[in-house]
């Protein structure tokens, strides 16, 4: 009797080597990591077996932003011919280097009253120079804001309401169109909840908002900006995290306003929100199914503002320094806040409202860097997340028998190098997928 041959057993294929960021081992954030398989082939389609592959991260999908007001003022100073103060440019260079070492999205000031302090005389050239400064180095740029009642031009006030509305429409069209392709994300309108009832000063925008109503003001801003730049991402932005803002969003959506994202301000001068409030805000505003942008985040490194202050602008002090306890508290609060935000896939952007204490709103110690350009513990802690734990360090892996390697980390832009050439790879939300790379 002839022997019966043993059944053949398929040779197991070893899993592709994985280049992965440290975040994949974090029990709180591992669910945000995604995996992308990269299959490398030669021009004939044959897998490149055993080749050495270099993997690097180039950017996050979540926008980690900060204001770029210092660079805007430097551009304006240069264009106007003003001589810098001693050491001014050196300090700004240091702050600029710290900015790019952590952030990737700049918010620039388009407050109408300072952008066009005299009718017809705008700071377009300065804002364009600042925007190009960031874009030329790979950063994204956002404009803030197209419509707001505060910092409105004084020259508007004597004009009749119909003329104010006409000029407001023109302003939105002009600037959204002028900067299209350079600034493609805008706070289309800012703080609408309080806009028609604002009583801290007189201004023409509040006056027309009181007669037009909140939703028509939002519609005006979005319609004109969209007409000028159809590709723009347009935000409704507010500091009011109460049900009043929720109701405004509901009314705008019911009226057919196409909101691309909701802007949520988080100036924490009276103390950090904490995890419970942060998650509550994300849940209440996340229910609309719109991307969430934390547009204005401030966390203090000094004494906190008294709890009984309602309008933060009412708190004025001669000096507001950092304190040893405050510096430690700020670092802890920044880490906790950013971790809670990045864990939620609805959050697409987080913007810190001021790199340094120099020029900080209300002179508060809210910067991540001191006035002389020294990083605070909070800067180092946040950088340790954004460019450390959440960033894939340059890694070399070997392609398997099918020419595959895998990239695992937070959604974002990555690149692989094989055969002396770099190839872009995007790790996206959703299911695992494969990217085919032809190495010539």
From TrEMBL:
Keywords: Carbohydrate metabolism, Glycosidase, Hydrolase, Polysaccharide degradation, Signal, Xylan degradation. It is an enzyme of class 3 (hydrolase). SMART domains: Glyco_10 (SM00633). It comes from the Bacteria. Its EC number is 3.2.1.8. Residues 85-385 form the GH10 domain. It catalyses: Endohydrolysis of (1->4)-beta-D-xylosidic linkages in xylans. Belongs to the glycosyl hydrolase 10 (cellulase F) family. This is Beta-xylanase. It comes from Cellulomonas iranensis.
């Amino acid at each position: 009797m002839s022997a019966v041959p043993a059944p053949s057993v398929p040779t197991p294929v070893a899993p592709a080597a994985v280049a992965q960021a440290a975040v994949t081992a974090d029990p709180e954030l591992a669910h945000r990591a995604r995996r992308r398989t990269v299959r490398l082939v030669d021009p004939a389609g044959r897998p490149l077996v055993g080749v050495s592959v270099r993997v690097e991260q180039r950017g996050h999908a979540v926008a980690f932003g900060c204001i770029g007001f210092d660079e805007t003022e430097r551009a304006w100073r240069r264009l106007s011919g003003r001589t810098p103060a001693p050491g001014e440019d050196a300090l700004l260079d240091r702050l600029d280097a710290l900015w790019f070492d952590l952030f990737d999205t700049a918010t620039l000031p388009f407050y109408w009253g300072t952008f066009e302090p005299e009718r017809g005389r705008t700071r377009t050239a300065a804002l364009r120079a600042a925007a190009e400064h960031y874009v030329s180095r790979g950063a994204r740029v956002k404009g803030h804001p197209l419509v707001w009642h505060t910092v409105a031009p004084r020259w508007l006030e004597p004009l009749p309401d119909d003329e104010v509305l006409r000029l407001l429409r023109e302003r939105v069209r002009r600037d959204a169109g002028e900067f299209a392709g350079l600034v493609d994300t805008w706070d289309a309108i800012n703080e609408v909840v309080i806009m028609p009832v604002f009583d801290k000063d007189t201004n023409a925008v509040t006056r027309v908002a009181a007669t037009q109503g909140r939703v028509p003001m939002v519609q005006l801003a979005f319609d004109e900006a969209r007409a000028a730049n159809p590709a723009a991402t347009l935000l409704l932005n507010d500091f009011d995290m109460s049900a009043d803002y929720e109701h405004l969003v509901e009314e705008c959506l019911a009226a057919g306003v196409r909101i691309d994202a909701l802007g949520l301000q988080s100036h924490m001068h009276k103390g950090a929100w904490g995890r419970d409030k942060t998650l509550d805000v994300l849940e209440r505003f996340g229910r609309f199914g719109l991307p969430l942008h934390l547009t204005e985040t401030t966390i203090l490194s000094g004494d906190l503002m008294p709890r009984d202050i309602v309008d933060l602008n009412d708190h004025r002090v001669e000096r507001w320094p950092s304190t040893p306890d405050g510096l430690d508290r700020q670092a802890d609060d920044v880490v906790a806040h950013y971790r809670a935000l990045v864990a939620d896939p609805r959050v697409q952007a987080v913007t810190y409202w001021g790199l340094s204490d120099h020029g900080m709103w209300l002179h508060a110690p809210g910067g991540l860097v001191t006035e002389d350009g020294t990083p605070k513990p909070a800067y180092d802690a946040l950088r340790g997340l954004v460019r450390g734990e959440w960033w894939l360090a340059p890694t070399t892996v070997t392609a398997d028998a099918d020419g595959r390697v895998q990239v695992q980390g937070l959604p974002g832009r990555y690149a692989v190098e094989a055969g002396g050439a770099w190839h872009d790879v995007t790790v996206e939300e959703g299911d695992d997928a494969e990217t085919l790379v032809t190495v010539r």
